[in-house]
Amino acid sequence: MRNLKYLGIFVALATVVACSDLEEVPVGRLSPDGLVQSPADVQTLINGAIGNMATERYWGRKLSLPIMLRSDMVSIGDLGTPGRRQEVNNFSMGADNGMVTALWPKAYEVIAGTNEAIFSANNLDAEPAQIDPVRAQAHFFRAYTYYHLVRLFGSIPYLDAPVEDINVALSISKTSADEVYSNIIADLEEAKLNLPDVQPTTALPSKATAAAFLASVYLTLGDFQKAYDEAKFVIDREGDFGLALEADYQDLFNAGVRSSEPLLTLDFNGFSDGDTGRDYAPALTGIRANERGNIGGGWSVAVPTINVYNRWDGRDYRKAVSLDTTGIFNGVEESFDKFPEFDSRNIQSAYIAKYTRLIGASGTGNGRASSLNYNLMRYAEVLLIAAEALNEITPGSDEAAGYVNRVRERARNGNDSGFPEDIEDGMSQDEFRDMVLEERKWELAFEFKRWYDIKRRQLGSEVFGPDGLEPQPNFDPARDYLFPLPGDELERNPNLAPNNPGY
User: Fold this and answer.
1) 3-state DSSP: the chain helix, strand, coil percent, rounded to 5?
2) How many angstroms separate the CA atoms of 408 and 421, rounded?
3) Are 324 and 346 contacting, i.e. CB atoms less than 8 angstroms apart?
4) Cα(252)–Cα(246) distance, integer angstroms
5) 22-56 residue pLDDT tens
6) Which segments of 359-443 are extended strands (E)?
7) Residues 6+ apart with CB under 8 A from 365
8) Is-contact 228 237, C-beta < 8 A?
9) Domains defined for the chain, CATH in brackets
10) β partners of residue 375
């Protein structure tokens, strides 16, 4: 029974792994009687789990788009886009929302792949030096996937082993969010212990990657000492880990540059065959009818609010990198206030540029055949985690200010204005906290982080209020910090009831 299950997984990998940078193990040499015979075979299972992340029902659209729209920096441009997307943005989603019902099973497919890899590694007769670093990858990606799920949904089913009996799986109960976080931390600790200092590709996690995500988890939980300790572990060893801030912020979003700043990326390699390996962010964020970049224009779905453009200081180099303020129509460059003249579904606002400007092999499908690497964690975020956490432990330290100043130095890009300035002495703890959250907002703009910052700091009533970047009268702090559990899952398994409050 298990061999048949493995066989199905390996056959699926022939398609899934083809779109990644990861080396594919030929399926034909894996015999049905002993499918997992070496650490390389376990790596194939892990590569398949990563491949499942690069699909439309996960990062391609169903995870990345909701966490972008849920923030206060991005709204719906084309009001003709499907209602399920608008409901996420407008805080009016229900348990039948199609973004949620598609994301949930795909996330658990990723988790199933990691569970199979861990099970196989544990039962493989191999030298610890060969198998432990591979198994550590599976622990990391299981933690990574659950980290998204628990922040989005709260208490969820927690599976840590392959499913042998489908009836058991269909009757599982929810695990408390606290316990899920404990399991995430345990997986990341295991990964940190056994992963190498450096990987051949940032599509695979290193020891520094695990520590960085531990820092992020602890920051989310409000354990600031441990968040600082894990971030400092990375910072103190940046040379050993081969880490550095990229000199030019634009190169972080250039498919032709391999940077030393990312600690983890999800890679797209110009592969657009079905929904596996397609990069939907260029299409979703692009300007309709725009002739720049030869991608055929975008869909004008996820668009920054005009307040983002108006309140982002123009002296900050990150603004020029992050936003497109002009488009080319009929061979003429036009400013964003004229965009609706060339397609009525465009809005009068600057558009996200990070996923449409330098995306490599992008000649087809509105940019869906891009070769971008998505930064899921980069070194600048580690510095900002350390600064935020240290401010909570020891307010007013030069060390915390120094981490922010490293990030700001790059944001100046050598401009004559000297903006953004280095941190001034004498900031109170509250002032520093507000400042570093603002710094994260601009440094990590449109990188799928802002919603989680709003949630962990409980900023919703402020940022979605009348003076926020995106006023949202529907926002209800008693309901909207969590997504609804999928209604179809509750129908199949009543043990998951009740749904989250308000749904």
Assistant:
1) 50, 5, 40
2) 7
3) no
4) 7
5) 543 333 333 334 589 999 999 999 999 999 999 99
6) 373-378
7) 272, 278, 283, 295, 296
8) no
9) 2-195 (1.25.40.390), 281-357 (no CATH)
10) 265
Q: Alpha-carbon distance 454 to 451, whole Å?
A: 5
Alpha helix segments (H runs only) across 237-349: 281-285, 306-311, 317-322, 339-342
Which residue intervals of 96-127 are DSSP H helices? 98-122
Strands 302-304 and 323-324: unpaired
Residues 405, 423 contacting (CB under 8 angstroms): yes
| Count of CA atoms in the C-beta half-sphere (13 A) of 244 | 9
C-alpha–C-alpha distance, residues 497 and 503, integer Å: 11
8 Å CB contact between 203 and 22: yes
Joined tokens for residue 465? 């209020």
**Amino acid sitting at position 310:** N
Q: Tell me the three state secondary structure of residue 248.
A: coil
C-alpha–C-alpha distance, residues 293 and 90, integer Å: 31
Q: Who has greater pLDDT, 276 or 400?
A: 400
Q: Which two tokens stand for residue 89?
A: 């943005």
Bin 409: left if φ > 0, else alpha if -120 < ψ < 50, else beta: alpha
Give the model's pLDDT for residue 179: 98
The 10 Å CB-count burial string (b at 16+, else e) for 284-310 is bbbbbbbbbbebbbbbbbbbbbbbbbe
pLDDT on residue 269: 81
Which residue in the block uniquely carries the two structure tokens 């609010």? 305
